[in-house]
Amino acid sequence: MAAVRVMRGHFDVERVRADFPVLARQVNGRPLAYLDNAASAQQPAAVIDAVAGYARAHHANVHRGVHTLSQEATALYEAAREKARRFINAASTTEIIFLRGTTEAVNLVAQAHGRPRLKPGDEILVSWLEHHSNIVPWQMLCGQTGAVLRVVPIDRRGVVDFDRYLAMLGPRTRIVALAHVSNALGTVLPIRAFLDAARERGIATLVDGAQAVPHLAVDVQALGCDFYAFSGHKMYGPTGIGVLYGRERTLEAMTPWQGGGDMILSVSFDGTTYNHLPHRFEAGTPNIAGAIGLGAAIDYLKAIGMERIGHHEQELLAYATARLADIPGLAFVGTAPEKSSLMSFTIEGVHPHDLGTVLDSEGVAVRTGHHCAMPVMEYFGVPATTRASFGLYNTRAEIDALREALLHAIRMLR
């Protein structure tokens, strides 16, 4: 099993890259430049080995067996929960629920917290820059309850209008659901100010942190949110696993969304007694291997240090912005003063899907499309953008490769 090495001193990107087996690949005869981290980040050997080690030596169901393998699997699974708790500074492991990811977490909150409480005319606030996963579940909830979805506007930089947000917080506002970081534009919200304003008015708050936790240190107690959701595969862990943080007293007041094994204490045909937190919201056999892999990813990030990671990525963003700015016809979409390490852009006369195909032929992996944020595309009047998103293992050389691939694509496609 690959050991997680604590990084001391300056950020050594070559040492980091050596931990990721896939980065040694060539794609179409070229060194892989993987710049699609906002969609899904690659996994270090420590994560791959943790998942494989569980499968090889400890695989069994959790919480249900007295035999050795079940006890070992349970210990590994619950150790991962404690790692997640520490990573976001939750007060207790009872506040950490393992789910498939951010999407399932938002749906759980909508159905288990929102549906029993909302009445016709109540309001849910989201912003214009949200991912579909933080729009559609609330639309479904509005259809079920008669509540109304209201949208806080953004400006041409991709900044959420805070003054307008304050004006929209009213006596019927029941839930505020906001992305910490925009997946389509990279905008970093001053989320604490948004949450403080809602909390002062007694409004429940959910933060979509999928794009924040790989790049920023997150402290849910300092933020004061009721719910915070994130996904493992954005933060160098496996797919199909994520976390919903919920304030304990808020979770205690919620009825489970799904029923089945492990979320119960007793069942009879006369009625059911639900399990204690957090298990009452984890019906059925969980993604045990995924949780263990997520725990290994957390160990990996902590060994490097979130501050060190953030500094490296911000340097990459500044370098990439400067390198791409003079490309003929290139226009950045989303220019907020506070951004995470991603950039979206269009190139005049070139469709993003064609651009992405040519870039792939040069070994450069980017994302093209609407990025599950169609309202953002509508606002900026474009059908799609090309998005390059940077992670802890990316380099200036890869950004140079991106630039050369873009110039090559322009010569081909114009």
Write the layout of secondary structure elements.
Blueprint: H1 13-17, E1 26-27, E2 30-31, E3 33-34, H2 45-57, H3 68-88, E4 96-99, H4 102-114, E5 123-127, H5 136-145, E6 148-152, H6 162-168, E7 173-179, H7 191-200, E8 204-208, H8 220-223, E9 227-231, E10 242-246, H9 248-252, E11 264-268, E12 271-274, H10 288-304, H11 306-324, E13 330-332, E14 342-347, H12 352-361, E15 364-365, E16 367-369, H13 374-380, E17 385-389, H14 396-413
Parallel strand pairs: 3-15, 5-6, 5-7, 7-8, 8-9
Antiparallel strand pairs: 1-2, 4-10, 9-10, 11-12, 13-14, 14-17, 16-17
Summarize the structure.
This protein has 414 residues and is of the alpha/beta class. The protein has 14 helices and 17 strands. Helices cover 38% and strands 17% of the residues.
Describe what you observe in this structure.
By secondary structure, the protein is α/β, with parallel strands linked by helices. The protein has 2 domains: 49-302, Aspartate Aminotransferase, domain 2 (3-Layer(aba) Sandwich); 305-413, Aspartate Aminotransferase, domain 1. Helices cover 38% and strands 17% of the residues. The chain has 14 helices and 17 strands. The chain has helices at 13-17, 45-57, 68-88, 102-114, 136-145, 162-168, 191-200, 220-223, 248-252, 288-304, 306-324, 352-361, 374-380, 396-413, and strands at 26-27, 30-31, 33-34, 96-99, 123-127, 148-152, 173-179, 204-208, 227-231, 242-246, 264-268, 271-274, 330-332, 342-347, 364-365, 367-369, 385-389. The chain has a 7-stranded mixed beta sheet, with helices on both faces. Strand 7, helix 7 and strand 8 form a beta-alpha-beta unit. The chain is globular and about 70 Å long. It starts with 12 loop residues before the first helix and ends with a helix. 47% of the residues are buried.
